[in-house]
Amino acid sequence: MSHRRKTRQREFYYREAVREGYRSRASYKLIQIHEKFNIFKPGDLVLDIGAAPGGWSQVASHLVIPNGRVFAVDLDYMEPLDNVLAIQGDLTDSKTHDRLKTIIGEPVDIIISDISPKITGNWSTDHARQIYLSELALKLCVSGFLKRGGKFVCKLFMGDLFEDYITNLKKLFHYVYFYKPKASRKSSAETYAIAKGLKKGPLKKKKTTKLEEVEENG
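RESULT FIELD:
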């Protein structure tokens, strides 16, 4: 792809994001992932890792209504969004984990992560840092945040640490897929892992309706 065509592709998604009111062009990556893999459904609880500026949270919040909600966490402050509760905190700090568990109150259905380090231009460094951040997101999946059978979507930079990460992912989830959305630049070394069916995790309590509560109480 020529430089001119690449620029046009980036500009297209940027213009679309502005036109449709999305926080970032990355919103279209999650839209395209959902269209292919059917990630979200109404009523889902979602945890968005490394959420700022909020492009993914914004998309997810639209897809889980009614009755669903998004919890977004990032080291940086994130401007408020409808149906999104943003928590500013450091994922390497156990206190942030404790805050999240208290605020969310139950296992979520889906964890999503488009997290990326500050790019240095040294690919080995950038790859290692991005995989480290994705490992933090994966650890949340197996630390009681994600329900048994839940889904996990994360960005990954290709490199020498990629295969080890995927091997571990496949041990934890029943199904693992890879996808590069059209909204990603073809020249980019990023891809997305879509994992479904967490093998071990907390069971989510079934929410009863008012009618069911009446019937239970006689």
